[in-house]
Amino acid sequence: MADIRVGISGWTYPAWRGDFYPKGLAHRKELSYAAERLTSIEINGSFYALQKPESYTKWRSETPENFVFAIKGGRYITHMKRLLDARDGLANFFAAGTLALGPKLGPILWQLPPTLQFEPQRMVDFFDGLPRTTQAAADLAAQHDDKLTDDRVFAQTERDAPIRYAVEARHASFETDEAVDLMREHSIGFVVADTAGRYPRITTPTTDFVYVRMHGDKELYASGYTDEALGKWSKRFQAWADEGLDVYVYFDNDMKGFAPHNAMSLLDRLR
Questions:
Q1: Residue 189: beta bridge partners?
Q2: Per the count of CB atoms within 10 A, which of 15, 104, 124, 253 is most buried?
Q3: CB-side exposure of 222: number of CA atoms within 13 Å?
Q4: Residue 1 pLDDT exceeds 80
């Protein structure tokens, strides 16, 4: 049976304290508070820097048993290397603790820079280098470079399980049948990004799940979603689930604090 998971992108936002987070709630309890009300969270600190194995272990322990994390891949790979010669970066990314999430490891997101145009061979080469199972990821992690000391490495897996990947493209050149076909051929999810019209919105499913990022209805990262808008989106999500596709939805309209409230409202509609 297909699953619809709804959450937020990140959870540490000072402006949410006293609003979504109750006044006086200890900062260390914010993840568990959010996880009790949502069904998934997208880890975005991993985009800015490699995290530590103990962080992933801690996050796993602070969330319900059936909770799932998505992880945002590092900008070193997407923005600095621009997906080229990514092997060492991928080895370090997986060695830094992602596998410590165990069964709570969900899809891995690669958000591309707006200046990166669609180049089929570049994408194919990157996709071919992605480990498709947790055991393959552990094997790759064991080949990390010396940027990671031994005490910052987690290169093992509790069980061999498939890894799902999604790509959020931000250049208009990706809005082609060729790009959709390439994603489908390599079983990569094409992110459905609602960006207030700023970036492409591609809604064609390309694998066995759909990854959705809700960046803002009218204003990027800032505006909230009305009940009417959430109603329309919920029907689309349910339709995908009825087709047998798992759906992951993350609200990233965090600037004015709408994200967690919109996420909870959507969950209420889907229940």
A1: 166
A2: 253
A3: 3
A4: no
Tell me the residue range of the domain where 178 lies.
4-270
Distance CA 194, CA 217 (A): 7
What is the number of other CB atoms lying within 10 angstroms of the CB of residue 150?
Answer: 7
3-state secondary structure of 240: helix
CATH number for position 90: 3.20.20.410
Q: What are the tokens at 149?
A: 């000391």
- 8 A C-beta contact, residue 210 and residue 191: no
Supply 36's token pair: 């009790």
**138-149 tens-digit pLDDT:** 999 999 999 899
Question: For the whole prediction, is pTM greater than 0.90?
Answer: yes
User: Is residue 242 within 8 Å of residue 270, measured between CB atoms?
Assistant: no
Query: If you write DSSP's letter for every residue of 153-175 in order, what string do you get?
Result: -----SS--B--EEEE--SGGG-
Q: What does the pLDDT average to over 73-89?
A: 98
The proportion of the chain whose per-residue pLDDT surpasses 70, expressed as a percent, equals 100
Spatial contact of 170 and 188, defined as CB atoms under 8 Å apart = no
Confidence of residue 24 (pLDDT cuts 50, 70, 90): very high
